[in-house]
Design goal:
The protein has 238 residues and is mainly α. It has a domain at 69-223: Serine Threonine Protein Phosphatase 5, Tetratricopeptide repeat (Alpha Horseshoe), CATH 1.25.40. The chain is 71% helix and 0% strand. It contains 9 helices and no strands. The protein has helices spanning 3-25, 29-67, 72-80, 88-102, 115-138, 142-158, 175-186, 193-207, 209-223. α2 (29-67) runs parallel beside α4 (88-102), α4 (88-102) packs antiparallel against α5 and α5 (115-138) runs antiparallel to α6 (142-158). The protein is elongated and about 105 Å long. The model is unreliable at 233-238 (pLDDT under 50).
């Protein structure tokens, strides 16, 4: 027999011996163990896939709730709903409500000549404070926290020119609080370009504090309703 043929014969014999050994090992009780193990592993994979798909579908349903939220009431329901607590859609709803309250429903209407609209706008800006503070305190995303702090600073600055109803000599906003919010925004990833801009903004505003406060005090005076006189007299109307 040639060496190459002898080598092939030895390989066939080795394979036959290995298969015989494997068959003997897994015959009877051993075979049941192997089959049982395969069944358990297969069942585990199927259960995990079912759980993963169910979880993904449940989360998709929560996301859809947010996508179809078109009003403040819808957003409020998501924020307060037990099924959304601690989930992404609740954070998004909180942020979206804050944005709507501060910008289109707030700042955009602060200059209204209609007293009722202006009053609602002021209340909306103050409402945004609460939501942005919640985002800043609870959200782990750096970009969202930074947006919350800068928006808080923007709202605070707008309220610098808004007197309180009960005492028109006092303003609703605070200059130091505005600077604090900019500093907190700048402290998030401080070497990033946005953070450097917020730090520079805080420094610039602080350096021009007297001028800025003078401007907003004058704005507050202009927005304070003039006293009404009783018809035909020089007495103030209560």
């Amino acid at each position: 027999m040639k060496p190459s043929e002898e080598r092939k014969e030895n390989e066939r014999n080795s394979l036959r011996l290995w298969l015989d050994h494997l068959s003997a090992r897994f015959s009877g009780r051993g075979l049941y163990v192997v089959l049982g193990s395969l069944v358990l592993v297969t069942a585990g994979i199927l259960i995990y896939r079912y759980w993963s798909i169910s979880r993904a579908n449940a989360y998709s349903a929560l996301v859809l709730d947010f996508n179809f939220a078109n009003t403040d009431k819808d957003l409020e329901e998501i924020i307060k709903s037990d099924k959304h607590v601690g989930k992404g859609p609740a954070s998004w709803a909180r942020l979206q409500e804050a944005r709507l309250s501060l910008y289109p429903d707030g700042i955009a209407k602060l200059g209204s000549f209609v007293p009722e609209e202006r009053t609602k706008a002021i209340a909306s800006v103050e409402k945004s404070r609460k939501r942005y503070e919640e985002v800043a305190a609870n959200d782990k995303d750096a970009a969202l926290k930074q947006e919350a702090f800068t928006s808080l600073a923007t709202g605070e600055e707008c309220l610098l020119g808004t007197p309180k109803t009960e005492n028109t000599a006092e303003l609703r906003g605070a200059f130091d609080k505005m600077i604090e919010y900019y500093r907190k925004a700048a402290a998030i990833e401080p070497d990033s370009p946005p953070s450097k801009r917020y730090a520079a903004a805080a420094d610039k505003k602080k350096a021009n504090r007297e001028e800025i406060e003078k401007f907003y005090r004058r704005l507050a005076e202009l927005s304070t309703p003039a006293p009404k006189f009783k018809s035909g007299t020089t007495q103030f109307s209560p």
